[in-house]
Specification:
2 copies of one chain form a homodimer. With 451 residues, chain A is α+β, with helices and mostly antiparallel strands. Chain A is 40% helix and 20% strand. In chain A, the strands form 3 sheets. Chain A has an 8-stranded mixed beta sheet. In chain A, helix 1 packs antiparallel against helix 5, helix 5 packs across helix 11 and helix 6 packs antiparallel against helix 11. The longest helix of chain A has 20 residues. Chain A is elongated and about 90 Å long.
């Protein structure tokens, strides 16, 4: 038979079993963390009607969409989880209770140019809190608190959630009389880390036509640094000149206070006036989270407050706040940086059961007892040489091997071999489950991420 | 602004939060059960190159495929999880250890005619064990044992796994001299439950051209009923006339023996000679699982043994055995039949924390303590009337509400209200977590499915 070459499309992450287990572990921590904060799981279709999915899209995004015809239907694959959420909330607004808190971890699709570390199919892990007409400011502090707990639960230590407020920025530009260019100014200021203050100042004048005073004021404003208390104190000096600014400053001050109440340490969050988030969509607090030792990676989690989630679908005002973690990209980076804790087992099972007798019933009974007790067991019954069996155990990285020979069966014991230490002992069948569980609990301790 | 009508495509299941939690619970039981048996998680792309995905497909399947062009690429959405597994194993054959045991729970796509209870996007939940060149017969018993444990863990009691063997059937048709029509005969015999023995006998003669003796032999063979021991004993009478039949009978006898060793009760599995599974692909044991009280639903889980998983991609012989549960369809049926245990909580959180003081820090501290202790907590801080807050608690179905007023804060207690009994008591802050966990454990007891 003529063969078709087996291949996986470029830009699509497909992991080997060991890596897949590591990925599931990261995903599991995110899920559990989101759940602890009272977010309900959501699972919307991957395919939507193009007219619905692209109600808002345009430009760059639209070009990347996987869009196609099936019968009479113009269909598209979702490119994020926010638009499907907007559709969902608009569609089910009368059946939902607000505030509506949901998480969704799912695949999204963007036909980007293929390059290393960029994916066309990737997981996003989103949380959002949606209000009905209004939403209390405390939610704008709780969202980064969830993110702090999530990364901490993963074992990540050196990260920083940078917080800013769009009203503060818009109010500041209004103070200078340049609110009509706020968008362009933000995009220029965005280049600060890359090109420095001097060049940004020049661009503000030359490209956007700002006067030197305004450009100078912006550059000085962006240069406000220090502890959160110091930055907030410096910002107080601008108070009283613009209402929108004042409101933004009050919000930012409240968010910083609550972040402390939520137990987020100062070293993990910072007011950063240069954070703007490109999208017009955001209207209040905005966030970007960076790995302290890997700024080159860019933000690993970002989001913010918006006033109108679903304005393309409904008259109902649905303000909200949310963030998204680019899970596939994060996992890729953790692999590349060798930050995944390799000490955690990645085998498909906890114990590999090797029957050494003709009659397999004792081995089957032992495996069944393990499984009932929550220990993942695999029976290995292929007619191979002993060495081949142990090679298999080694290759899958199983923590323990159980031997059941004539001798063991006669004495109601099982020989248990620790594949890390190499030690082996005979354990009474009645005690084997406890023996395994105690050791497995230790073996499975430790964070998913090291560093 | 002109609005786009929010809608979800027909044939795509999108659940409300409460149902989604029930769905996640069913999915979670499947996952945990598969893991206990040493299956490793796999996650392959939803999009594949059409040439790879459709290497084998044809006819009805091909028409249902979501296939489209993106740039220069001819792409298709996967329509099952078996073809992606075949591709994966062929592609990574040198990096995998055999037997390779994997589970995958993922969405697949078939552009079927839309009708109630039929889905175009649906989850399949597959397990397979793949050998390298050979695979021990015990695996053909372990797979239905996993299915038994999985349905039992869900709480399903009245189901039956029907087992047969393709060699037995092929050998039997060869005995009669009609092996060249084995496929057609199987498809006709498949109609037995619907049209009865008499009509099947007529069709075998009239449509397929069998002589009356052969047709009679087939109808009598298919009529063999009784306990598994009785059916196997009746089959022994045919032994010695055809080698393939004899091998099939030995395999079936072995599988029945091992199923007992695996602890599967007789009432949950039965040798059923009418089970054939349409696909040529299967070569040994085949399975179909039915809900005893709802035969009209058809098989809720099916699969079998095959000799060549990936023959379209590789020369390597990869025999295996596996089954698939149509998870979305199963969930739909469980909903329709009102079999989901409605006593299990479906709220996004275990406790809704209502601060009754200006200063939110005590409420935040309490919510944080709950979350650290594994209790899912939601802070409710919207400036609403008390009644509106309690309405919200009711609507989301939260098991407990925590009140923190001046009085509680001053006395280091929290008022905890049981939303089911309506009872309320003041509990010391230091004991509140234990109080909640004890009651939540009880509230979360019980199977996912009732009946």
């Amino acid at each position: 038979m003529e063969k078709v070459k087996a291949r996986t499309l470029s830009g699509f992450m497909e992991l080997l079993p060991r890596q897949q287990v590591q990925f599931e572990r990261v995903k599991g921590v995110l899920e559990e963390s989101y759940r602890r904060y009272g977010f309900t799981p959501l699972d919307t279709p991957i395919i939507e009607a193009s007219e619905v999915l692209l109600a808002k899209a345009g430009g760059e995004t639209e070009k990347q969409i996987y869009r196609f015809q099936k019968g009479d239907n113009d269909l598209s694959l979702r490119f994020d989880l926010t638009v499907p959420l907007a559709k969902y909330v608009a569609l089910h607004q009368n059946e939902l209770s607000f505030p509506f808190r949901r998480y969704q971890i799912g695949k999204v699709y963007r036909g980007e140019r293929a390059q290393r570390g960029r994916f066309r199919e990737f997981y996003q892990a989103d949380i959002d809190i949606i209000g009905d007409g209004s939403l209390d400011i405390i939610n704008e502090a709780e969202i980064p608190a969830v993110i702090y707990q999530t990364f901490t639960a993963l074992g990540l230590k050196r990260f920083q959630i940078r917080v800013n407020n769009r009203k503060l920025l818009n109010g500041f530009y209004a103070m200078l009389g340049w609110e009509h260019k706020a968008g362009d100014i933000m995009r220029t200021v965005d280049k600060l880390p890359k090109i420095g203050a001097e060049k940004v100042g020049l661009m503000l004048c030359d490209d956007l036509g700002l006067d030197q005073d305004a450009a100078g004021d912006i550059v000085s404003f962006m240069a406000i640094k220090g502890s959160n208390a110091e930055v907030l104190a410096a910002l107080e000096a601008y108070r009283g000149r613009n209402q929108v600014f004042d409101q933004g400053l009050s919000e930012l001050t409240t968010v910083v206070k609550y972040l402390g109440d939520f137990g987020v340490p100062e070293e993990n969050f910072a007011v950063d006036l240069t954070i703007a988030r490109g999208l017009d969509y955001y209207t209040g607090t905005v966030y970007e989270t960076f790995m302290t030792d890997h700024p080159e990676i860019g933000a690993i989690c970002s989001g913010g407050r918006y006033d109108n989630l679903a304005e393309y679908y409904t008259e109902k005002q649905l303000p909200g706040v949310g963030v998204a973690i680019g899970l596939t990209r994060l996992f890729y980076v953790l692999q590349e940086q060798r930050m995944l804790n390799e000490a955690l087992p990645t085998a498909p099972c906890d114990v590999l059961v090797l029957p050494m007798t003709e009659d397999l019933s004792p081995a089957i009974a032992f495996a069944t007892a393990c499984r009932s007790g929550g220990v993942r067991a695999q029976l290995y019954t292929e007619p191979k040489k002993f060495k081949a069996k142990m090679n298999y155990a080694d290759k899958i990285g199983v923590p323990f091997v159980a031997f059941l020979g004539e001798d063991e069966v006669a004495n109601s014991v099982v020989s248990l071999k620790d594949m890390v230490s190499g030690g082996q002992e005979k354990v009474a069948l009645s005690e084997a489950l406890g023996w395994l569980k105690e050791r497995l609990a230790k073996r499975n301790q430790g964070p998913v991420i090291q560093g």
